């Protein structure tokens, strides 16, 4: 499939797909004309990239994680044990950022509650 079809099937912009290739996350075949050609497994790969980006991971970490993600029945498993500690640390960082955001929301709620209604 060409890049436009991959974009339609994944809901990801063509620009983002090109960026993923620049970041070494996607490896399309190149046709003689220079057009990129993607395979069906690339749809799943792009969905995984999107999920990892949504989780707050950067493309360098995603580049390390993607080769270690394997489908096992209905769930994903990590096949590279050396990444486990990194992922646990990344999860902790996300939880810390969530706590900071909650504190900011609480502060804003207090200010709003103390402000006269407009």
UniProtKB/TrEMBL annotation:
Gene3D superfamilies assigned: 1.10.1660.10
Per UniProt, the keywords (alphabetical) are:
DNA-binding
Q: Which InterPro entries match?
A: DNA-bd_dom_put_sf, MerR-type_HTH_dom, MerR_fam
- Give a yes or no for keyword DNA-binding in this entry: yes
Q: Which residues form the HTH merR-type domain?
A: 1-68
Pfam families per record: MerR_1
User: What's the protein name?
Assistant: MerR family transcriptional regulator
Organism for this UniProt entry: Aureimonas populi
């Amino acid at each position: 499939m060409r890049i436009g079809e991959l974009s339609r099937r994944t809901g990801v912009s063509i620009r983002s797909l090109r960026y993923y290739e620049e970041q070494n996350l996607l490896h399309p075949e190149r046709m003689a004309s220079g057009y990129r050609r993607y395979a069906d497994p690339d749809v799943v790969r792009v969905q995984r990239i999107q999920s990892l980006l949504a989780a707050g991971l950067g493309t360098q970490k995603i580049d390390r994680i993607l080769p270690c993600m394997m489908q096992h029945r209905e769930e994903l498993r990590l096949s590279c044990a050396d990444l486990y500690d990194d992922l646990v640390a990344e999860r902790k960082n996300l939880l810390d950022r969530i706590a900071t955001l909650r504190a900011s929301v609480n502060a804003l709620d207090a200010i709003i509650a103390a402000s006269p209604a407009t």
